[in-house]
């Protein structure tokens, strides 16, 4: 996680969060600002993909809640990616089985619901 100020010497927080996003796309990015500006917020969201803005001075309890939610969001995003990869692997395996054994994924049942096996 990176927490950046918006106004810094040498570069803005938006420029910094863009670099962070490009180098570490999974990193959660938050930005501090003493002077929130609608255009700056839009630019930071669109270009730096900032998760949340924190206005200065901040409330310590609010900051702790924001950090907790940010880490929770990061965990959920990572878990979602892991599960998506697993589903894609399983789909690939099923497709391979179907190519090697045509009809393997179709089930034939009798009138009682029992599975019928083809003995041929």
Which percent range describes the beta-strand content?
5-15%
Structural category? alpha/beta
Helical proportion?
Answer: 40-55%
Instruction: Give the CA-based shape.
Output: elongated
| Distance between the amino and carboxyl termini | 60 Å
Report the major sheet: 3 strands, parallel
SSE order, one letter for each helix or strand: EHEHEHEE
Strand order of the largest sheet: 1-2-3
Regions with little confidence, pLDDT below 50 for 5+ residues: none
What is the average of the pLDDT values?
A: 88
E-strand count = 5
Rg from alpha-carbon coordinates:
25 Å
What does this structure look like?
With 120 residues, the chain is of the alpha/beta class. The chain is 52% helix and 14% strand. The chain has helices at 13-23, 38-48, 60-100; strands spanning 2-5, 29-33, 52-55, 108-109, 115-116. It has a 3-stranded parallel β-sheet with strand order 1-2-3, with helices on both faces. β2 (29-33), α2 (38-48) and β3 (52-55) form a beta-alpha-beta unit. The radius of gyration is 25 Å and the shape is elongated.
């Amino acid at each position: 996680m990176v927490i950046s100020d918006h106004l810094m010497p040498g570069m803005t927080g938006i420029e910094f969060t863009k670099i962070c996003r490009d180098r570490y796309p999974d990193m959660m990015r938050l930005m501090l600002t003493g002077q929130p500006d609608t255009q700056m917020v839009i630019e930071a969201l669109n270009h730096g993909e900032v998760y949340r803005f924190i206005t200065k001075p901040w409330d310590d309890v609010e900051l702790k809640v924001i950090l907790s939610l940010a880490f929770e969001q990061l965990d959920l995003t990572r878990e979602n990616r892991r599960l998506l990869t697993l589903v894609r692997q399983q789909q690939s395996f099923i497709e391979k089985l179907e190519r090697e054994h045509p009809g393997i994924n179709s089930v034939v049942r009798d009138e009682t619901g029992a599975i019928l096996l083809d003995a041929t």
